[in-house]
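User: Here's a chain of 146 residues. Predict its fold as tokens.
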Amino acid sequence: MINYTFENRNVTWINSPYVLSIYTFGILCFRAFLGLFFNARNCWTIVTIIHNILTWIHFHWLLGVPFSQLRDSENLRLTAWEQLDSGEQFTPTKKFLTLVPIVLYLIGLYYETRVFFIALNTLTTAVVVISKLPLAHGVRLFGICL
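Assistant: Prediction complete.
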């Protein structure tokens, strides 16, 4: 675990009150917006894939912190996921953020019938969920965070 001398605002915002509710509401609003242009099958596929790509980039690709007081810390080598909750595993926030792509995948699987898009949903969800597991903590594959 990491001992922070400063508040790590890079990740502490996610534990603020109502953030996870707003996060869920945002996903549902995005799905409703897509519903204006696509059928349910396509909407859930698009939501799942875009959600997985964006959260993987934010939580598992980008390293370091954007705030100057932590520039000399070991956080420069860590992703946002590794910094979240001081590196503790299976906290309520991490459980929720792991469950969301799984639920989106299951919803998409319910609506989707095309094999290509099922495979694409499976691939993106597998990458995101595997990246969240404790075995991927600190693991880099060709310089890319898992």
